Amino acid sequence: MWSPKRQEGHTKIVGPAYTVKYVRKNHGTDPKVQGHYIDSIPAGSVVFISSPPGIVNAVYGGLMSHRAQYSGAVGTIVDGRVRDLQEHRDLEYPVFARDIGTASPQELLRVSAINVPVRLQSEDQEAIISPGDYLIADLNGVVCLPKELAEKAVALMASQVEADERIAEDLKKGRTFQEASKEHRANVKFIADEKGR
């Protein structure tokens, strides 16, 4: 979290993903995107920008936050670098990113697609962010909840939160975590992944 504050505060964003895919200028023969992606953001969405790996140029800046905020976006997540931190912070507009940079993307990059599935740039995780997936971001980081699992996940959340609250109360009274967890999480269901884990 870089804005409104750097890893501080109660900022939280939740909303459906509006994806933007950047590629190197010499990449493939994708058709040119008409207009600017920032002008078609749906209200209530979270802008997710994918930048190619190894790029030090920022792909998102202050002017983009001005327009995104006016459009009703709830925040922006950049799988890459951002710039113009003070502008984002002055707007109190939530921005999450891997890092910061100073150079603009124009010399090296171009937008190749809007609202298409994009791959997370990570050697540690295999993840795809699709348009409409729910993005949740706060001080702890960013989570993508696939839209096809959203209804199932929401149905399970209340019991998980309640169990954790009861465990916390027991821990304040001196009970061990193992005892409290065994009692309060015994009947709580969690979402399994595609392998049933």
- Sequence of secondary-structure elements: EEEHEHEEEEEEHH
- Rounded to the nearest angstrom, the distance between the terminal CA atoms is 30 Å
Rg, rounded, reads 19 Å
Structural class: alpha/beta
Pfam family, one: RraA-like
Could you describe the 3D structure shown?
- The structure is a single chain.
- The chain is α/β, with parallel strands linked by helices.
- Helix 1 (about 60-70) runs parallel beside helix 2 (about 85-90).
- Strands 1, 2, 3, 4, 5, 6, 9 and 10 form an eight-stranded mixed β-sheet that branches.
- It is built from four helices and ten strands.
Task: Write a short abstract of this structure.
Helices cover 24% and strands 27% of the residues. It has 197 residues and is an alpha/beta fold. Strands 1, 2, 3, 4, 5, 6, 9 and 10 form an eight-stranded mixed sheet that branches. A two-stranded antiparallel ribbon has the order 7-8.
Layout of strands and helices, then pairs:
Elements (H helix, E strand, L loop, with lengths): L12 E12 L21 E5 L7 E3 L1 H10 L3 E8 L2 H7 L3 E6 L8 E6 L3 E2 L8 E2 L4 E5 L2 E5 L4 H23 L4 H8 L13
Parallel strand pairs: 1-2, 2-4, 3-4, 4-5
Antiparallel strand pairs: 1-6, 1-9, 7-8, 9-10
Helix pairs in contact: 1-2, 3-4
